[in-house]
Amino acid sequence: MFQFFKRVQTYVGSELNAALDKAEDPVKMLDQFMREMAADIRDAETAVAKQLANEKLLKKKYDDANSMVEKRQQQAVEALEAGNEDLARRALEDKNVHAKQAESMRTAHEQAAADVSVLREKLSEMKREYEEMRLKQDSLKARAESAKTRTKMNRAMSSVGGDESRRGFERMEEKVMQFEAEAETSEDLRAGSRNLDDELAALKKNSAVDDELAALKQKLGKE
User: InterPro entries of this UniProt entry (predicted)?
Assistant: First the structure.
C-alpha cells in the first residue's frame, strides 16, 4: 500500500507513529492522507505530461532528420544525373550528418516513449490505489467514530457504581437516615411535652371542678 505516494510514505513512518502517540484524530488523519495522495497524483500527472511532450518533440526531430536524409539522397542522385559530382558529394555528406542525427533521435525517442509508458502505468496504479483508499475512507471513518463512541460509553458505564460514586451514594443514604432520626426524635419530644401540658391542664380542670363541687355541697347543707 502507498507504493507510489512519496508524501504518505514519509508520513506513515515515524511521523505517523508520533501522531498516534499523541492520540491524533484518525478521521482528520485519513483526510490528510487523501489530500496528500491527491497531491502526489497531480505531481505524477505533471511529470507524465512533460515526458509526453518531450517524447513528441524527439519524435518530430527524428522524423525531420529522416526527411532530410531522404531529401539529400534524392538531391545527390539529381546532382549526379546533372553531371555535378561535387554537389552530389556534398549532398551525401550532409545526408550522413542527418542520418547520425536521426539515429540519435531514434534512440532518444524510443527511451522517452518507454519512460512515458512506465510513468503512465504508475500513474494508473496510483489512481487505482487512490480510489481503493477513497472507498475505504468512509468505512474507516465510520469504524473510528464507532470506536470513539464505544470508548465513551464504556468509560461512562465504568464510572457508574464505581467506588467514588458508591461512597457518595452511601453518604447521602446515611444523611437521609440521619434526617429521619432527627425528625422522629423531634416528634417524640413534642409528644412528651404535649402529654405534660395535658396533665397539668387536666389537674387545673379537676381542681376547679372539686372547688365548684364543694361549694355546691355547702350550699345544700350536705356538709
Answer: PspA_VIPP1
